[in-house]
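Need Glycerol-3-phosphate dehydrogenase [NAD(P)+]'s 3D structure for a figure. Predict it.
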Amino acid sequence: MSEQSHVVVVGAGAFGTALATVVAETGESRVTLLARRAETVAAIVASCRNEAVLPGITLSASLEATLDRAVLEDASVVLFAMPSQAQREAARELAGHLPDGAAVVICAKGMEKASGRLLTDVLEEELPRRHVAVLSGPGFAADIARGLPTAMVIAASTLERAADLAHVLSGPTFRLYPSVDRIGVQLGGALKNVLAIACGIVEGAGLGDSARAALISRGLAEMSRFVAAHGGDAATVTGLSGLGDLVLTGTSHQSRNLRFGIALGRQGNAEGWAGELVEGAFAAGVASKIAAERNISMPITDAVAAIIDGRLALATAIGQLMSRPITQEF
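Structure prediction for Glycerol-3-phosphate dehydrogenase [NAD(P)+]:
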């Protein structure tokens, strides 16, 4: 892949903006942020700021911003940085502008709610003749944009392609590790959001740090079973896109999934939640349904889905989890 790659980031939310500025800061590629709102573009051009999503952070001076989708036509790498449930629609809208052979990198953590499919499957269906990869792992947008040390994973269909993308997108403070396990990387990113909600429930209900540690450990076991059942490598969940991401989002109040879980733990239901989009709330129901269909044991995920849907009281869920049959850990 050429050192002068044109990288286009689609989606000027916090994560998309952060990725765009950290890649632009390397100076190795031309980087363009494709936004939907004229005021976002005007602010970035005038002040190198996107205050609405990254307040107080100055973006790279070399970062370009535009509303014009034609910018995609010479892109070699395109980062899809919109929420998981918007990925299919975005692919359909932009397909006519994306050149054949371009690498399209999914930068969302979830599964398609309507179909239960992996986002790589969704984009490969909508964008044939492009190379679909996925970026995931522990990285908050504000930390990335500020240039704080961050390590994540990029998975592609071949190790060579993943390594090429890692070299194009990595910089002094942003390191990507290449992988070929797109299944494991995606499912780790989706399920850690569900488990982060569970961690928030533990915190909100005042169940203690010991309960959180137990939940993280047993949640990883659920994650590994789910990944293996889908043909991924169970070992992937012990890395950045599984354990690393779960530790981050299950312990830091920067995590919207954790904050949502705390609200659930305090009041026992999701009524009145008016916070930001919570990817884990979508993923919980999808994963629980698939687990039931494929006979995968996922009691924590099932409990989170049922609490969110109002089908299970918090106290009942805790009792059910603590009274499960005693078996060997592994």
